Predict the structure.
Amino acid sequence: MKRLIHSDSSVPSESLETFKTPLKDGNKNETEVLKFERISPENKKGKKIPRCLDISGSKFTEKESIVQPLKVNALVTSDLTPAVKSIYKIIQKCTGSLGGNAYFGAIYGEATMNCMKQVIEIMKEHCNFSGSSSFIDIGSGLGKPCFHVAQDPGVKISYGIELEEIRHNLAVHNMRHILQYTETNHGSKHGNVFLQHGDIQNATTLDPFTHIYMFDVGFPPLTLLKIAEIFNRSQAPFLICYHSPKLVIEEYGFNVQFVTKYQVSLHGSGERHTGYVYSHSSKTIRDFDNSIIDPLFQEGVKMIQSNDPGKLIDYFNAQNQAYLSTQTRSRRTSSLL
Ligand SMILES: C[S@@+](CC[C@H](N)C(=O)[O-])C[C@H]1O[C@@H](n2cnc3c(N)ncnc32)[C@H](O)[C@@H]1O
């Protein structure tokens, strides 16, 4: 058994295997060296116990506490479709790779292409993530997870909601360019992403989404308590987030069961984080009724369901225009002060 570890880990070199991956986030000139620790199966008293980056302090069994080994093939960028690579190139060109531009100068971590690919592979393996899924990214930032899952596995609905206006508008800027690209490139999917500027706390449920994803490391506890209430009222069978079971189940009260965990690193913050996959206790895909849509998501979901990319392009062009004119007005006002 192997697991990916930090390059600066204190694991002795004799128990490491290295693996070179030729590119990192589309830059062909870079080579990333990934190190795997060989984990011994004998794990009883006095024997080697796999070091685990469990920051939760929760009571996992040894087996559960092993960080989900990242599959080597999930890290090979040839597995990324040309459409996915092109979309990250467009985002890079439009808004750069960092997840900054938040109010108060905060720099939030943003998903990288490889890290998101890993998350998607984990979701496919453990959460029936497929073309018939409906995905929401709570706190969608510049929109990368939403754009990625729209291509792979090509979800039915890819929805992002972002609180901060500037970041939302950067995501809209990305979206307009991606829509133009997907219009002219067959094999890439379009029309199934919607990005909303808003606060998730205004939702009553998370219906009609099957997979709830949130990079929630910086979310305030009160927000997480509220999201737990909303989640518990929802049909969603799966939750993928970056808080341990101790917090998610015991502190915030999400009605979920731990499924697995994995590690990712992000742009912006440069940190590594442990992601956790949970299943909604007592909710299954089989019982899912996708005709139920929370009022907060109705406009966006209906727009996706209308399957009219032209309508989406017009909608996001209008949003962009409205934003630019408020910016121009506020610049004019401040120059008069
Ligand atoms: C770390 S970023 C993640 C960006 C993106 N999901 C990714 O993985 O690349 C977290 C985002 O959540 C947003 N956020 C925080 N609280 C929120 C809320 N109540 N409703 C919607 N978005 C929220 C923040 O503004 C921030 O952009």
Q: What stands out?
A: The two ends are 65 Å apart (CA to CA). The longest strand covers residues 256-267. The first helix runs from residue 62 to 65. The CA atoms of residues 109 and 279 lie 25 Å apart.
